[in-house]
Specification:
Elements: H1 3-29, H2 37-61, H3 65-89, H4 105-121, H5 129-145, H6 151-168, E1 175-180, E2 183-188
Antiparallel strand pairs: 1-2
Length: 192
């Protein structure tokens, strides 16, 4: 096995621990107990980036092309819907900075990434899902503490993100069922 193959094999084995470490590192880079709204804003952004980056990294290390497309659709739909709702609803933020409070896109993207990872890879990484959803929940909490959102904004964002994760993601079982123009197709893949 070449060096690249060995590195990918190691990453596959240790990905859940690396993901948890990355999220923890993001958390300690900005003190959780901080009273500063700016620090909570940065912390919640770090969690979104950590969750999305970890889900993407897991997908890439698994060489999961179908998962790559599902992750893209999940995140793109989440972002489009959250931004579309913001443009239509015009709810003022608690800090008065703008009129795009509802729903929380940070929270929506965090729950979308956590849901994607849980659905796609959760059967093989059962211990990671609680960490991911905890990080997503901390993102929501951080948005409230940063005075960027009200509770209803983050609750709607969490529901939106989780819904998009469930709408676009299938379990990585090696069997994929997909719609076609006049019915459905099935694909089975395995590695030897």
């Amino acid at each position: 096995m070449n060096l690249k193959g060995q590195i990918l094999r190691i990453l596959k084995v240790f990905m859940p621990a690396l993901l948890a470490f990355a999220i923890g590192l993001a958390a300690i880079s900005q003190p959780v107990a901080a009273d500063s709204e700016d620090r909570w804003d940065k912390l919640s952004t770090a969690f979104v980036l950590g969750l999305a980056g970890g889900a993407e990294l897991q997908t890439l290390t698994q060489r999961d092309k179908a998962g790559q497309w599902e992750f893209f659709k999940t995140m793109a739909a989440t972002l489009a819907l959250s931004q579309g709702l913001k443009a239509v609803i015009h709810k003022q933020r608690p800090d008065g900075s703008s009129n795009d409070s509802f729903p929380s896109a940070h929270t929506a993207l965090a729950f979308a990434a956590a849901s994607y990872f849980d659905i796609r890879f959760g059967q093989k990484n059962k211990n990671v899902a609680p960490l991911l959803y905890s990080a997503a929940a901390l993102t929501a909490f951080g948005r409230i503490k940063a005075k960027k959102h009200y509770f209803v904004d983050v609750a709607a964002g969490a529901l939106l993100g989780a819904a998009m994760g469930h709408a676009f993601t299938s379990a990585n079982s090696g069997v994929n069922i997909y719609p076609t123009g006049d019915g459905a197709g099935i694909n089975f893949a395995t590695k030897f």
